[in-house]
């Protein structure tokens, strides 16, 4: 519900009602502050991108890990993070400090903080972003991906409840269709916000809303928090920021976030003196598929793959070790950008897709999202889960055939490019299948599958026993065309550990804070070049918590 405030003055203003903004706003209200929460979208978008997420949370040495026999520690997690991030710039000092603080929290109070708010986790811990490039290569050396029971909506629920309670008490005012245009400044401080009131719009969550001006607004507070997200929904900005180290930017991409994730808040903060850093660091997936039932334009879904699919590039060459499904996101992206094509392929069969394909997103996992235990257990009784079968039936990127020759013909027909040679693909499959049938031998991927199955979580729900992809008993052959899927900005507004925004010389801008993806999840890029997964939602929690607490402390001191 949108309210007309009785006053233009508040103790804290938070811009952006996604997870980071919700956490910042509720932390501030719990300290006694009167808070204004603004968002340019309709109220249906409360919670932002987190609503659509799988709910993955990075935890270290958790009870869930220990029950599965996983030995983890803060020291190991910190080492994994440092080697994965690859910090190498002068401006990485704050990012490195944020990363260390975050790992300590993930191994300390994070789970309890969430548990007290009613958040629970699925008992099987996922092993995302494994790396594979040696003992100190990038990646998680142990499983750390804890799926929230209830996925993204389940993670949001306690913060929405807290916000609604604060709203009912008059401590929190939420204004929708309020688009930030400018930060109000004076005497070296940020003192408020100005912007445009947009015309009401009944667009459902995620659907693009109008930008018709219906009025203006101006509100004041001694503390303003920017939590406006990144730029993954603005494909032109993604291409403009694309780094040369990842090759040329793709001409054709699918979007993993709605159009309103456009980077606009970053530009506004910069005009007020905020220092933007690491804008060329980004996190996009190579396993994107067009959503057969889209919510926003170019809506893409990410496949969370198990390790068994054969991965080939657009011309039919198998990807080199260790670029296997689920191992090294950015390494695979860099390699594929060097091929000159915007897509690649998985080749697999029905047995593999049934057990190894998970689809990222709350709406693609109705059993977990709905906290339906019986439905979760029923996954084991079907050969292909319903959401995956829907893509097999309707997805434009999914092809099925009985023979390699027929499958390759369909792949060439789909792209309109006669790039794939059936004999070449059959030869690659035969070489792979013969090793799968007789032991790992010299095939790194088959050895990786065998290794994965030593972890109980993977053996139970995420990997099939190595077998011939062409085995008729394993069901039809399947090809999936994979596109680049935009997701996260890893750089952003530089902040200190109190979430205070820093200027060009590294001094705090009085009254201005930043949280979530807008802050590179903390410090202007606490992931460095690469993420360990489960750290996007966690970064929103951690930086939003810090921003809300310190913004309210600043209010008390005024």
TrEMBL record:
<protein>
    <submittedName>
        <fullName>FAD-binding dehydrogenase</fullName>
    </submittedName>
</protein>
<dbReference type="InterPro" id="IPR003953">
    <property type="entry name" value="FAD-dep_OxRdtase_2_FAD-bd"/>
</dbReference>
<dbReference type="InterPro" id="IPR036188">
    <property type="entry name" value="FAD/NAD-bd_sf"/>
</dbReference>
<dbReference type="Pfam" id="PF00890">
    <property type="entry name" value="FAD_binding_2"/>
</dbReference>
<dbReference type="InterPro" id="IPR014614">
    <property type="entry name" value="KsdD_DH"/>
</dbReference>
<feature type="domain" description="FAD-dependent oxidoreductase 2 FAD-binding">
    <location>
        <begin position="11"/>
        <end position="537"/>
    </location>
</feature>
<keyword id="KW-0285">Flavoprotein</keyword>
<keyword id="KW-0560">Oxidoreductase</keyword>
<dbReference type="InterPro" id="IPR027477">
    <property type="entry name" value="Succ_DH/fumarate_Rdtase_cat_sf"/>
</dbReference>
